[in-house]
Amino acid sequence: xxxxxxxxxxxxxxxxxxxxxxxxxxxxxxxxxxxxxxxxxxxxxxxxxxxxxxxxxxxxxxxxxxxxxxxxxxxxxxxxxxxxxxxxxxxxxxxxxxxxxxxxxxxxxxxxxxxxxxxxxxxxxxxxxxxxxxxxxxxxxxxxxxxxxxxxxxxxxxxxxxxxxxxxxxxxxxxxxxxxxxxxxxxxxxxxxxxxxxxxxxxxxxxxxxxxxxxxxxxxxxxxxxxxxxxxxxxxxxxxxxxxxxxxxxxxxxxxxxxxxxxxxxxxxxxxxxxxxxxxxxxxxxxxxxxxxxxxxxxxxxxxxxxxxxxxxxxxxxxxxxxxxxxxxxxxxxxxxxxx
Length: 340
Fold this sequence. Notes:
Elements: H1 3-12, H2 17-36, E1 47-50, H3 64-67, H4 79-89, E2 95-97, H5 110-119, E3 123-128, H6 135-144, E4 148-152, H7 158-164, H8 170-186, E5 193-200, H9 208-218, E6 222-227, E7 249-251, E8 257-259, H10 269-272, E9 273-276, E10 281-283, E11 296-297, H11 303-307, H12 310-321
Parallel strand pairs: 1-2, 1-9, 2-3, 3-4, 4-5, 5-6
Antiparallel strand pairs: 7-8, 9-10, 10-11
Helix pairs in contact: 5-6, 6-8
């Protein structure tokens, strides 16, 4: 059976009548908002990202964790806060991403939290640099019930890999990947679905075919070629690929760069998903890395009150009126290709 098809069947197995009904309410509410110009929201998010930690062992450019450039505090997600929120949302939540900033495996109870969500039949995914996928952690990962494991590789040689993954060791990534695949086989488990994520930048664009071949040789389920967000892109960057297909930005006649996508005054993200930081702040999406647009705090209010509350309503209203009023939207991929 095709591995992606098998993962798709696994995802569909998480559907329930309540989750389907909630999803329909979200979709209808979004299109009603687009047509009417009113920020209608009739369902709860069916996808959320929960941040285990802001800490990271690497120093990747274009990453606040790697650059140690946060203005918000760093820390670790409290298990009780996570469980309280998941308990509230579990009947309607379909997809849970254990990632925002930082390296999830640095959280000492990370896999216990994965297991808690998996027990509620929620599709769970995480993204890792794979430096902590020891034999023991790999076994625990498979046993946790994690559905999707995204492994950042970004190079097929150490020289290329370390140009973006500063401080990283490619051999650790490959070793960790092999550990996961070994324990999937040992435990006769079809999960997690293992993805090699290759962030296409100028230094590694010549290795796209090589990473696909490497994944095939190791037995990885899928390769995802991802386009890179560049913060200061206007005057160009050494990271912007020369292969147009993999660049989010295009060069202008005057030598400057601009984002490719057409700027539209709506955003599907703010209807079906959100991000919850390690300390309980709810922000609109993964572009708000420093939590500037705070919609509420699950430490002091229920998620339902927050989601249908005035702060969320006003933010959605601004999105419909003019996304150009929101600074983080100006470098947003909504409407363009993230996965090439």
